Amino acid sequence: MSATYYLLKPLSLHQSDFDEAMELCRLKPPYEVMTLTVTVDRQRLELLTEKILYIDYQNRVTRIHTAERVTPVSGSFMEVTAALQQDKRFLASYRGILINMDYISHIDSQTIRLINGEGLPIALRNGKHIRENYRQYVFSKMGGIV
């Protein structure tokens, strides 16, 4: 690495320069959806979207999977995931499954493998589109222009 910015002291006199330098050092882009509000056991709960591995719908229950636990929530899959459909991090891989691409370790022709080892199915007819969306997402995270 090399220097990309020089700051003059005292910083209080050069606050705008300091803010600009910190903006250049930001490691991850701001999230489009910071939290997801859901209902669990009749109580409203705010979940950080960066902690969500994936959301699925199984046996008429929408479940949110994090590294710590699986949380069944009230509401249909579409109601729960509506806000996340616009967030570039989330990818619909199969009917009733929405995956946070930050947790994907690799994708093959039929499966998305997460960093925790779980495998999730890919819809066969959308496989090429899903893999391309993931490639573009990874490229944009590395600073590429999509």
Set down the secondary structure blueprint:
Elements: H1 15-25, E1 35-40, E2 43-48, E3 52-58, E4 61-66, E5 70-73, H2 77-81, E6 90-94, E7 97-100, E8 104-107, E9 111-114, E10 119-121, H3 127-141
Antiparallel strand pairs: 1-2, 3-4, 3-7, 4-5, 6-7, 8-9, 9-10
DSSP summary, beta strand count = 10
- Provide the helix percentage: 10-25%
Distance between the termini: 25 Å
Mean pLDDT: 87
Overall body shape: globular
What is the H/E string? HEEEEEHEEEEEH
Helix/sheet category: alpha+beta
Beta-strand percent range:
25-35%
User: Biggest sheet, open or closed, and with what strands and sense?
Assistant: 5 strands, antiparallel
Radius of gyration: 19 Å
- Could you name the ranges where pLDDT drops below 50 across 5 or more consecutive residues? none
Q: Describe the strand arrangement of the main beta sheet, using strand numbers.
A: 5-4-3-7-6
Number of helices, where a helix is a run of at least 4 consecutive DSSP H or I residues:
3
Describe the protein in words.
The chain is an alpha+beta fold and 146 residues long. The protein contains three helices and ten strands, in the order αβββββαβββββα. The protein has helices spanning 15-25, 77-81, 127-141; strands spanning 35-40, 43-48, 52-58, 61-66, 70-73, 90-94, 97-100, 104-107, 111-114, 119-121. The strands form three sheets. The protein has a five-stranded antiparallel beta sheet. A three-stranded antiparallel beta sheet has the order 8-9-10, with no helix packed on it. The protein is globular and about 60 Å long. The two termini are 25 Å apart.
